[in-house]
Each structure stands twice: as C-alpha cells, then as structure tokens.
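Morning F.,

Quick status update on the modeling queue. The single chain you submitted on Monday has been processed. Sequence for confirmation:
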Amino acid sequence: MDVHDRTRAAGMARTQHHGIDIETLMASGVQLAADPLTTHSALSAFVGRMIQLESRMTSVRLTTECSAYAVDVLATVFERGWQPVELVHVLERLADKSTAQMSVSLIAEHSRRTRALSTAPEAWKGQLHSLGADPGAGLTRFRATSGLDPRSFWTGLLRLLVRLRRMHTVVTVGPPPSKWGDSSTTAGARTGDIKLLDKIRGLLAKAESSTFPAESESFSAKAQELMTQYSIDAALLLDREAGGPTDSVVITRRLTVSNPYVDAKMKLLSAVASANGVRTVRYRKLGLIAMVGMPVDLDLCELLYTSLLVQSAQDLERVGIDSTMRGRGFRRSFLYGYAGRIGERLVEARERAQRRAAERYGSSLVPLFEQRDRAVASTVEDLFPDLATIRTSMSNTSGWSYGRRAADTADITGGREQIDDSGDSDDSEQ
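Structure tokens below.
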C-alpha cells in the first residue's frame, strides 16, 4: 500500500463512527456548495445541520472526522501535479487569507498522515517549512486558533473543498505523494551544489546591501566568477555522465509571483531565463510561471531573478517622491523597461562569456549546448502543446525610460554571464 492509499484508508476508517457516514455527508455538502443553483438558505440549512451534529459529537470530534474527508480531497489535488506552496499562493489570490490558512492546516494534516517529513522529497519538505505546516497542527488546531465562529468555519471549509475539487491538472514538477520513494521519478532532477549556491547567494546579498560601489562590484565580480565556472563545469560533467538522451535531464519548476505588477515581474524572469537557455510558460491568472531547462540553469536563474527583484525595488524607491513617479502606471512601466534592458545586457554578457569559454575549451562546447537547447525546446513542446505568445504593453513612457536607465547599472552577475546561445524563447502562457 503506497502513501496515497494509506492516507485514503486512514480517512475512510473514520467516516463510520456514531452511525453517521461523514464522507457521504461532506460530499453532499460540497456538492451543494458547488451548485450555482443552490440558494443561500439551502447552504445555510446544511451548515446548521453540521452545527447540530457538533452538540452530539463535540466540535473537536466532528472537525477531526471531517478533516479525514478534506485531506482525501487535498490528496487528489497533489496527484494532479500541484505543490503545497503554489496551491496556497493561488488560493490566497482567488479567495482570501483565511481560506489559504485553512488550506495550510489541511496540508499539515496531510503531511502527518503521509509522514512527509521522512518520506517526501527535500523540495516538498522545504515548502512545508516555508508554509509553517506543522504536522501536529491540523484542521482542529486551525479552528481553535482562527477565531471563526462555527457557521463561518463550516461555510469556509465547504467553499475551500469546492475550490480544491475544481483545481485543474497541471504539469508535474516533482513526484506526487503516491510516487514518493520511487527512484524512477527522481531521474534527471539533480540540483546544484548547495554549498556553492549558498556561497553565491551570500555574495549577491552583500552586493545588494553594500552602499559602496567598489565593494559591491567586488562581491559581484566574485559571484560572476563562481557562476560562470559553475555553469561550464556542470555542463561538461553532465555530458560525461549522461547515460541517456539530453532531454532526460530537462526538468520543469514553477515559481509563484506575488502582487503587485505580476505581469511585469514575469517579464523580468522571462528575460533572465531566455538569456540562460531556459524557457518560461506563464499562468497569468494564477500568478505562477513555469521554467523548463537544466537543473543548474534553473537554480542560477532563480538566484539572478531574486537579486534583480531586490535591486529593482531599491531603484524604484530612489526614483523620487513626485506623485507622477509613484503611480501604478509609472511603476509597472518602470519594471517593463527594466526587464527589457536587463534582457539586452544579459545577451551581451552571454556573448562575452561565449568568447572567453571558446578560448579555454575550444569548439567542443558548441554542439553540447546546441543539443541542450534542442532538448529544452522539445520538452516545452511536449508539455505545453497549446501555447499562445503573450503581447504586453505599457502606458507610461517616463517609467519605461527610468526603468531602462536603472537596468544599465544593475548587477547582472548574479548573474552569471552565461556561455550558451539560448536561441528564441518567446514568453508564453498556458
């Protein structure tokens, strides 16, 4: 029996207590809440029934019984490709913070029943940690600490379950709980040298925080040196070790992009990715963006993107206090101009790095990276066969101009001056 089956069995075992089929009861409640023809009074009557049951079973016991059904619904969402952090992110965008917090309690309960802290991949564990999803703090704990009255709690739970059941299948970016422990699902998912990445991250943080240009440049130069060396060495090592086709080591990763100016931030990430052999696919309404490429390239793109977000925010604050420079139109256009110029600078940096790499390694790198680019493009076509190219516009030319000027002085070494020719990589949306 795998992890997913054990979770379902644990939930089913609790549904027949006290002569009440909790699973059937909850399913009927979710169906009622999901039906657009359901009147407010009908849903209110069902919630009233749940409140009456509490007097027979106690609120703690009934909440515990119902959480088994709720976690089973959540488990099906994870099997459709969703990851914990992005699920909470989307719920917060489409619903509200209370709904998102309730979902964290279900994720915590799911992690307890699946023993996630010992069986899940490291990336999944990291997401649980970032969410504060304590396996010992499930739906019952949430109810006790949320301050919600019984009617608000049951109504909120039903609406959350409706949203979960409506979550569409997304491209899998890591093994779902039912596949934890299956070694075949981790093939090609190797990530970078954690210690080296941490060292690079530390140098970038110092470059961002330093108020002395010379010192900042020194930190940036060292980060650039490490990243360029890291990228070349990783590519050559992978080529020597690869036992199968190059596309077997191409992976997909999704990032959450938070308000404000989600589209402009996605444009910045796409600019970084395009210059580094990585393709992007946007889920604009959900605030998610997928990156497709080699693990080492995804790691370094994330580092550079994060560094540039910090720098762009700092540059925006230095623009001035004039009200015309504080409006949404100006700031959004600033980020678009910033992203466009960053993309140009990264291409220039890539070309310089290509020339240096050719002097050191000769022409052997050319077919290696051409093969990699073909593998990335092929993977995107397989995973996202119905993409549409995004055309974006901005309305404030002053903001755009300021953004481009700020990008001229941004540290792009976080940046790695990439050594490969990434080819065309239009921003796309699923």
